[in-house]
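Hey, weird one. I pasted the GroES-like protein sequence into the form twice and got a warning about non-standard characters only the second time. First submission, copied straight from the form history:
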Amino acid sequence: MSKSIQFKGYALVDPSNWSDLQVREFKPKNFEPEDVEIAITHCGVCGSDLHTVTQGWGESKLPLVVGHEIVGTVTRVGDKVSEFKPGDRVGVGAQIGSCLSCKRCKMDYENYCQESIETYNGEYPDGVVTQGGYSTAIRAHERFVFPIPDKIESRDAASMLCAGLTVFSPLKTYGAGPGKTVGIMGIGGLGHYAVLFAKALGAEVYAFTHDATKVNDIKKMGADHVINTSENKDFHKDLSGQLDIIISTRDTYSPQTPLGDYLSMLFVHGKFISVGIPNADNPLPQIHPFDLMPNGALIGGSHIGSKKECLEMLRVAAEKGVKPWIEELPMKEAGTALRNLHDNKVRYRYVLSQDLA
């Protein structure tokens, strides 16, 4: 018989004081035959968490527990679960549900399902609000639960399940590998993972940062070339037409961001893929069709990743020894982590360890 778990977490209760998270109990989803119940040991701190608690993406359903980079131990499985058993070490990412029956879901594009349910601040059909991983436990359909390879530490695996997957998916989709050149725009939590995984896949990596204090770090991550765009305003000229893919991890833009300069660095039919999501009032900088036509440049986006992609990412990470730059904090310091993320003080990802259970 499984041990009973009390569902509680560090919750946002007052958006005007968003870093002051309070311990609150919450109602989990009804346990169904395809569900897995997980006692959480670690949860990463994502930029999505910050955008949510600050209401940058709209109003939150309060009280709300954020966190969608979750690792823990299976405590209970439904009668129809075939992939997991109690005691397994598993993870959950930014998506916790979909219809599972549409064309997208059947083709392993469940992350693009039009009935997708987010791991927190979402809502199940019965009205239960989804609560995230700054908490003791979570329930999820087995489709959205990932086995963690033995070679990957729990704290490292946690931050891979959103940040890592978000960049791994477009890198794989658009062919990053030997003989390809990849540009990474913005080297924060997502960007550092983009460098690590692009190198693990065998690509030549150009990292673009405006922060001189990060240059040495980025070299240690394995980037082949590091360009400080604050010091070299003409950085794009030497790289005109040379990059196959640019992954933009930026979640803030100004109207003066030289997006056209980045597009000019793409090879014929090169792809500029945005994975960072700014606040709702912060669109991409304006461009002109002339910025796209000389090289047939394509602009696109990417949304987290599928389970199929996540399993491949974890396999690559285990085989290639991908090691993220992590700072671990007790979960009670989640508010401090969010505040430091807001102030750009994290290098390069926070992971919270359980202290409520």
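That's the output from the first submission. The warning seems to come from a hidden character in my clipboard, not from the data itself. The helical segments are 47-53, 103-106, 154-173, 189-200, 215-221, 259-264, 307-320, 334-342.
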